[in-house]
Specification:
mainly alpha; 6% strand; elongated; two-stranded antiparallel sheet; 12 helices; 6 strands; 397 residues
């Protein structure tokens, strides 16, 4: 049951007159407000099994640590749709139908629209509440839990004001598309602490420059050795919470069009779950993933260091050559766990000699200029010579 008890309103004339609270004020709901709410309830009941069927989730919330630890079924949230009141369900189902029905737009556009719908779900549900300190709506998952809310709030769908309306969710998607075509980074000049300016990097993400792969990072066998320059991660929060159980809130809605678009989702059906960490094996999988990434980065660094030593030697820079070879020896000892005794030093020198020989052969075969000083120009040589490191990447078990 839903019973409104307060409205936050806006008066543009009051704002123009400079009145307090910037033209905003609170008011008690009128009979017209109640009629609009009950009218939406009746419309939902008439359309949920006809026009809007298949555009809202009907399955029960599966048992999980996050969901049932907070006892949300005891608060009446037994199914995903119960996390929304009838008016919110009416709005979400209409939006999902308009955005994803066949022929509505190109599928690429429909998929981008799902990003806006996902954000709007957390702003229009029975878990959004009023942030008293910030004096604004606070969306669901502002804290990473399923704690039931006593006083909930919802915004007008297509209003231009207020946090979490539909236009603001769409705006985020449009900004992302624009940034992918024309990326920029914030820049603070020397002495500045605020007031950064946009600096356009000139390296667009859109197009053929980007490849997205969906698989475990514990195996990187499809990538050449020493071919990764930089790794960026969004580290999980350990065992504080389980990602998949939080993502299910969104996936319950998103899987409805996904089952029509992709065979994988269709085969999984209602049992399909979003990709997430199972915390019982999280540490093992994460350790294996980072080991695979670290291994290929170390190999690349090793070949760069050997190449640096060769260039220094050709330029008669003996100090630079010796320094680079010393760094390469240290990398080999670290990578293989080789000791610093006489036998260990001999083994390191053997590996170093093999690596140098293979790199020199590749350089000669390619007939490269005498001094190849940039990492970009030497990338191919490092990848080929990295065969000296025969450590297999850890595979997920």
């Amino acid at each position: 049951p839903t019973s409104p008890y307060a409205l936050q309103c806006f008066c543009p004339e009051c704002k123009a007159d400079g009145q307090v609270y910037d033209g905003r004020y609170f008011a008690a709901p009128t009979q017209a407000d109640v009629n609009r709410l009950t009218g939406a309830m009746r419309e939902w009941e008439s359309l949920k099994s006809t026009t809007l069927a298949g555009f809202w989730p009907t399955e029960e919330i599966p048992y999980g640590w996050q969901t049932h630890y907070w006892s949300i079924p005891d608060h009446g949230y037994t199914h995903w749709y119960r996390m929304f009141n009838p008016r919110q369900l009416l709005v979400h189902a209409h939006l999902l139908r308009a955005a994803t029905r066949e022929g509505a737009a190109a599928q690429s556009v429909q998929e981008q629209t799902l990003g806006a719908i996902q954000q709007y779900l957390r702003n229009q549900c029975m878990f959004a509440f009023w942030n008293i300190q910030a004096d604004k709506l606070e969306p669901f998952f502002s804290s990473n839990n399923y704690v039931a809310k006593q006083n909930v709030v919802e915004n007008c769908v297509f209003a231009a004001l207020g946090r979490g309306n539909w236009y603001s969710c769409v705006e985020g998607v449009l900004e992302g598309i624009e940034w992918s075509a024309k990326p920029w980074e914030p820049l603070l000049t020397e002495g500045q602490t605020t007031g950064s300016q946009k600096v356009f990097t000139g390296d667009p993400i859109a197009g053929t420059r980007t490849t997205i792969e969906c698989h475990s990072s514990t195996s990187l066998s499809e990538h050449s050795d020493a071919s990764i320059d930089l790794v960026m991660t969004d580290p999980p929060f350990g065992d504080n919470f389980i990602y998949s159980e939080l993502a299910n809130f969104f996936y319950a809605w998103l899987r409805l069009p996904l089952t029509r678009w992709y065979n994988l989702a269709a085969m999984q059906g209602a049992k399909g779950q979003p990709l997430g960490f199972v915390m019982t094996i999280f540490q093992k999988i994460a350790s294996s993933s980072f080991a695979a990434v670290a291994s290929t980065l170390r190999r690349r660094l090793l070949m760069l260091t050997i190449h640096e030593a060769i260039v220094c030697d050709e330029n008669l820079d003996t100090d630079g050559r010796d320094r680079a070879f010393t760094e390469a020896r240290a990398l080999l000892r670290s990578m293989y766990g080789i000791g610093d005794d006489m036998m260990g030093r001999a083994e390191v020198d053997r590996l170093l000699a093999d690596g140098k020989l293979q790199l020199l052969k590749k350089l000669n075969d390619k007939a490269l200029p005498e001094a190849v000083e940039t990492e970009l120009m030497s990338k191919g040589e490092e990848e080929s010579a990295a065969a000296l490191v025969a450590v297999a990447l850890p595979e997920e078990r």
